[in-house]
């Protein structure tokens, strides 16, 4: 979610009774630790690729259960560098969902490859393996499933497609830090994975940041070289790399937050349960699915309603922060129009864009707020029938 997305949902009619997100409330719980960590960086005056980044990379790899975690400048760069490390380039096709933040597909274009859209499973909002199978061609070089809203994609089916075709499987785990798939963390389920630490993410920094994870030593080494001007040795450029490093200040803040991530995700899951109890008999709102074996971390709690824009506008008028992620599918957007896809080609993604509505969810949200939001949603749904 970008800052404009976050602010559109939370400030359209201030002051909100229940904000969509409240990073000030989160900061109040970690202020001393964050201030001490930031002070430490200033005292050392090492701002780029220093001890905080090394420690964060090691701690993130241990937490997730993978061999390598490489800090980069953003989630978008994580995707671009992972694609490059997987050898994806001009003329290659990469299968992506059309119902995701634009960066998933834009990163494919940014390495000169062709994004090929496959539709989503309407129950989970994640890439549908059957649609992926129909979309494969001899040019397919990689799949990028997105663990949308914090629910892991069907990695068993997608993993078997990737193995059969000997193509890369790159998880877009930007919204899923700490989510799990049959006991393994998102971020350890494919060739490599990409995380975003954009401030509103469930593990968010104090600015932009991202992470590439992998178990493959050679892949990790290629990402490290690419993020550092293509250099293994200073002033020797082996490949055309770039400057994409996580900085020390971000890593210092992220280390503090990483220690809380399980508690925060548990808080999100608990609140999701409260929404479920409060809205289970509301037939005009379809609740998100819980898939056996998958641990959803509810980066976003998203219901389906008919005419989501009208419901969103009325809820915001009623003082409830909410948002539509995402209002328009990627295959019909100007940046992808030359690929020749039209409205109607991705019916499940298109319908989701008309129906999804994200309600406030974050660890500091008081229980009473769930009741307030649920009551307001019921009232709006009755009125917009
Ligand atoms: C699914 C998804 N992929 C990629 C990104 C890109 O991450 P960033 O904003 O850190 O570049 C985001 C978040 O913004 C995202 O939600």
Q: In words, what does this structure look like?
A:
This protein has helices at about 5-10, 25-45, 50-65, 75-85, 105-110, 130-135, 155-165, 215-225, 250-260, 260-280, 310-315, 345-355, 365-385; strands spanning about 70, 95, 115, 140-145, 170, 180, 185, 190-195, 210-215, 230-235, 235, 295, 300-305, 355-360. It has about 375 residues and is α/β, with parallel strands linked by helices. The protein folds into two domains: about 5-20 and about 260-385, Aspartate Aminotransferase, domain 1, CATH 3.90.1150; about 30-260, Aspartate Aminotransferase, domain 2 (3-Layer(aba) Sandwich). The strands form four sheets. A seven-stranded mixed sheet has the order 1-9-8-5-4-2-3, sandwiched between helices. A three-stranded antiparallel sheet has the order 7-6-12, with no helix packed on it. α2 (about 25-45) crosses α9 (about 250-260), α3 (about 50-65) packs parallel to α9 (about 250-260) and α4 crosses α5 (about 105-110). The longest helix is centred in the N-terminal third of the chain and has 22 residues, at about 25-45.
